[in-house]
Amino acid sequence: MLVDSHCHLDHEALSGDLDGVVARARSAGIGAALTISTRLDRFPDVLAIAERYEDVWCSVGVHPHDTAAAEPAATARRLVDLCDHPKVVGVGETGLDYHYEHSPRDVQQRSFRAHIAAARETGLPVIVHSRNAEADTARILADEHGGGTFTGLLHCFSATRQLAEKALEIGFLISFSGIVTFKNADEVREAARIVPPDRLLVETDAPYLAPVPHRGKTNEPAYAVHTADKVAELKGMSGSELANATTRNFYDLFTKAEWPAR
User: Fold this and answer.
1) Which of the residues 60, 69, 226, 257 could staple to 211 if both were Cys, CB 3.0 to 4.6 A apart?
2) What pLDDT is stored for residue 261 in this prediction?
3) How many C-beta atoms lie closer than 10 Å to residue 20's C-beta?
């Protein structure tokens, strides 16, 4: 069994065939999936998907791209209140994206800190996006960790080994997506090699970043198996060892998520 620890099932590329997407994932051995919130005005749709399927969970949060539009509604208090639902198991995705800068950097940073505050209060893990913002991501995580512990992960890791090491220092997990299969992703593969097996997760970030051999197509949770195969190869693990480790890591981190009935 594998878990797709990060996907966007509310995205229009997937939402028109949700039953098919979920069925194909189950057939591929994906035992659970976490569908991610990126905007509070679309959170009801994300939550409805999680409620529809027993093996799908969700998060609540605002992607850094959308933080300017979300202010001042996306307060830590508002996030905490939305975390009360039993299907909400994580806070985010949040973080920093300086590649497109759809929202000002100071607004992104305030939102990031608000999400961390909500994660700290609820005890739920914070799901962190970081793109072209390695120094500020590391600085804010270290600063906030000094103010009180919280759990979380770096999702869709695409940074350097140095950020991976800083995240590991504060107890974070690191999740790898289909990027690890891409031809020019040597730095990501290097990071995957140094992450301990008990800190690893795999994801699709569907419908984005389809792994080889599906690159260029719409990604979906079933394709997590290809990412898992590559990570297992890099770690010198068997496929079953990698699946067992990452599944256990998911449920150890997302403690509100319930193991599937056996």
Assistant:
1) 226
2) 75
3) 12
